[in-house]
Amino acid sequence: MRILIVGGTGLISSQLAGLAAGRGDDVALVNRGISTVAAPPAGTHIIHADATDASAMRAALRGPRLRGERFDAVVQFIAFEPSHVKADVETFAKLTDQYVLIATSAAYKTFDHFHALTETTELENRFWQYAQLKIECERALQEAAGAAGLGWTIVRPAHTYGPSRIPAYTGNSAHPWTVVDRMRRGASIVIPGDGTSLWTVTHSRDVAAGVLGLLGNKAALGQAVHVTSDEALTWLGLYGAIAAAAGLTAEQFASQCVFVPTEAIVAANPGQEGSLRGDKMHPAVYDTSKIKSLVPGWEAGIRFADGVREAIAWFEADPGRQSVDDAANTMFDKLADIYERALREAST
């Protein structure tokens, strides 16, 4: 199978490139060649271009187009605006049989009761521009692809982690080692709410395996599907698994936990309002029947307790990866001080 991955060095795309190359597919990656997180797998072809620039992308692909070459699938990881997707439809309509847009499960509407999310759940996000734009990207693809005769599939990953990413509620995206550093030095760990809301995280290798099973899959054409784990953890359970992997005892972890409502976290860091109010503060449990039907035999087999140990080991292998977020540390210290003081005052 000939596969073109737009990206190829990110959290999920690097895993997809590795899995595809490992099974013998002809894999090409389009990126700027500046990632330090994941090297391109051996045997892949690199096309250096700014994939957000339609003119640059078409110039880079001019050779294959003139030679009448086609890709069995193009997987787009870095389209974040509908105008980009519309340009992609024009770029790839004559180059591929299947255009796969990586969207997001944060697009799903949230509920005030337990609701297992399915692909038919309404798309609505009132707070997070990232998710709103991804919804518009989906609609742009569906509207433009039909007229262009382009087959399409939409994939909605949820909160994904892996070797270079340790998941957390907030303050951990740019510098994922921050939460482990706080745990190991005995600092307070801010847990959202009472820590009891259910949340789903999925290892990037499991997501990539699901995406790979959709490529060249005629049943997946014209379909939107989320690729997520069936393992739903409470936030307290998720942080507890990170703590255990970081070497803390259950008693040490419990002594460091401080429970803080999302409203206070947003007040301390307004820039996170979209991702918290529009996503992480709501329970997220997924019905994975559709991906399992489309890709028989697929399942998210990496348990979080195992996957997070792998992620921590990745950071430990190179101290240069262990950067921490000073601003996030200041925020966490401030919130913990306020709530710990309030608890002391409430008990007197």
Structure description:
With 348 residues, the protein is α/β, with parallel strands linked by helices. It folds into two domains: 2-160 and 202-227, NAD(P)-binding Rossmann-like Domain (Rossmann fold, 3-Layer(aba) Sandwich); 166-200 and 233-284 and 306-343, no CATH class. Helices cover 42% and strands 16% of the residues. It is built from 14 helices and twelve strands. A seven-stranded parallel sheet has the order 3-2-1-4-5-6-10, sandwiched between helices. Strands 7-9-11 form a three-stranded mixed sheet. Helix 1 (11-22) packs across helix 7 (204-214) and helix 8 crosses helix 13. The radius of gyration is 21 Å and the shape is globular. It starts with a strand and ends with a helix. The model has no long low-confidence stretch (mean pLDDT 95).
Show the helix and strand layout:
Elements: E1 2-6, H1 11-22, E2 26-31, E3 45-48, H2 54-60, H3 62-66, E4 73-76, H4 82-92, E5 99-102, H5 129-148, E6 152-157, E7 159-161, H6 178-184, E8 189-192, E9 198-203, H7 204-214, E10 223-227, E11 232-234, H8 235-245, H9 250-256, E12 257-260, H10 262-268, H11 273-280, H12 289-294, H13 304-316, H14 326-346
Helix pairs in contact: 1-7, 4-5, 8-13
